[in-house]
Amino acid sequence: MPSGSKTAGPVRAAGGLVWRDRSRRELAVIYRDRYAPEECCLPKGKLDPAEGWEQAAVREVFEETGCEAEIAGFAGLLHYPVGGRPKVVVYFDMFAVAEGAFLPSKEVTRMAWLKPPAALGELAHEGERELLREFLERM
Asked: What was the pLDDT predicted at 3?
């Protein structure tokens, strides 16, 4: 390796299975048009420098849904390549404690509360669908 070069580590991101309340009947999903029209995803985003997983998950959920959420536990982990680098996403089981007004952004066009079967039908990525299926089986 040439002197002074660095090996890039994985892209680190955090997000949540964000439930509207403790009944776990409705799950927050977001829609973005960055890669495909109306791509449905779970809320998540990259960690800021020196930010922890949980802190990033709470921040990203707020930024992408307008909801203040609290973490109830670990929900699962996904890893996949992005642009030639590995990406690791830690998801937490979260409950909305305050629903703020959703504001569309350059990243998220809308958000919705869906029942789990509807969310499984809407989520664009198999990894997120599998994460949700496995979480529901454990409940």
From this structure: 43
- Residue 131: partners with Cβ closer than 8 Å, 6 or more residues away: 17, 42, 75, 76, 78, 91
CA distance 99 to 89: 24
The two tokens of residue 82 are 């992005």
Burial class (CB in 10 A: 0-12, 13-18, 19+), 99: middle
Q: Which residues of 17-44 are buried (b: 16+ CB within 10 A; e: fewer)?
A: bbbbeeebebbbbbbbeeeeeebbbbbb
- Structure-token pair, residue 62: 């707020």
Residue 96 and residue 22: Cα distance in Å, rounded?
9
Per-residue pLDDT reduced to its tens digit, 14-36? 999 999 999 999 999 999 987 66
Please give the Cα distance from 13 to 72 (Å, whole number): 18
Q: Residue 31 and residue 57: Cα distance in Å, rounded?
A: 17
